Amino acid sequence: RKLGIALVGLGGYSTHQLAPALQETKNCYLAGIVTGTPAKAEAWKAKYKIPDKNIYNYQNFDQIVNNKDIDIVYVVLPNAMHAEFTIRAAKAKKHVICEKPMATSVEDAQRMLEACRQNKVQLAIGYRLHYDPFHQRVMDLGQNRIFGNVQSIRAHNAFDMGAGSSNSWRVDKERAGGGPLMDMGIYCVQAACYTMGKAPVAVTATFGEVTRPELFKEVEQSINWKMEFENGVIAECFSSYSDREDFLEGKAEKGWWRLGPAFGYEGKRGETSQGKMNYPNIFEQASQMDGQAESFRNNKPSIVPGEMGLRDVKILMAIYASARDGGKRVPISYT
Ligand code: NAD
């Protein structure tokens, strides 16, 4: 049986990526929606043939507990709202997929995990790149030491935001938790961790210059940081809302690799010291949700579990702590 997914928050990502992906998934389908905007409810209902009984708003959302059509709640709201809706979904006994970053504080991420444990539901993070063949190859090259030990990593992910109002929550500290690090930089954090197959022991970071103070009043415009792994390997990373960069590189004893574009939805390209990577560009969100639905259905741990989301929030918070403290080395404890 296909599992029913309810999308919570019908913004850009739900509209342009997740809903279309759910037309192609084999293990799950778009069964319901949760929205604060009645006009969106009408439009989605018509477009995707969603029955009235599977349409909720943020107030009556908890009644989803009684809805047998919904197995999975997918939280696609501004970052600071992930905790509330993940916890409410867990209490309604639904498995949860939560978008990245999992939360805007370590405490929230811990509360989310606890709620899912208590209610015996699974929690997975929307880390789509774990389902992408280019990134799976990087995991293989790094973790299985195909070219020997990894010696260094570089990962940059930046886009030029412009002054568009549709991104207003992304520059609001309260709702986003931070700037490009939370939104784009998290892909670099993830990539360094899955290249190494482990988490960094410490980080150092510095905020970049603010050239657009009208937009970046509350969150950073850009940030440089380094992640230090226990064997001394350093990942050099950068993220920004006012540049265009998108690559992931690794250097090992006997070879190297480079993805670029690396982190966007389409057009990925990759190369190693042995030549071009020949992988198809897949519909990542469809593979991701199919993979997550299958793990929920079989009661197997997800390859992108809530625990990984918590680990990453700890790393993000350590990066901010270092940047605020003038680049001081901040060790990270995961226990
Ligand atoms: P968006 O601004 O396009 O959509 C946000 C949605 O939340 C809108 O429908 C909005 O109406 C709703 N909302 C409810 N309460 C709100 C409030 N108080 N303030 C603002 N909006 C409110 O954002 P998006 O790009 O769809 O991002 C949503 C989440 O998905 C974020 O956590 C983001 O990090 C994540 N995301 C992930 C990927 C990915 O590739 N995995 C890509 C894009 C976004």
TrEMBL record:
Residues 136-244 form the GFO/IDH/MocA-like oxidoreductase domain. Keywords: Oxidoreductase. It holds the Pfam family GFO_IDH_MocA_C3. It comes from the Bacteria. GO terms for molecular function: nucleotide binding; oxidoreductase activity. Residues 4-127 form the Gfo/Idh/MocA-like oxidoreductase N-terminal domain. InterPro entries: Gfo/Idh/MocA-like_OxRdtase_N (IPR000683), Gfo/Idh/MocA_oxidrdct_glycsds (IPR050463), GFO_IDH_MocA-like_dom (IPR055170), Glc-Fru_OxRdtase_bac (IPR008354), NAD(P)-bd_dom_sf (IPR036291), TAT_signal (IPR006311). The keyword Oxidoreductase applies. This is Glucose-fructose oxidoreductase. SUPFAM superfamilies: Glyceraldehyde-3-phosphate dehydrogenase-like, C-terminal domain (SSF55347), NAD(P)-binding Rossmann-fold domains (SSF51735). Gene3D superfamilies: Dihydrodipicolinate Reductase, domain 2 (3.30.360.10), NAD(P)-binding Rossmann-like Domain (3.40.50.720).
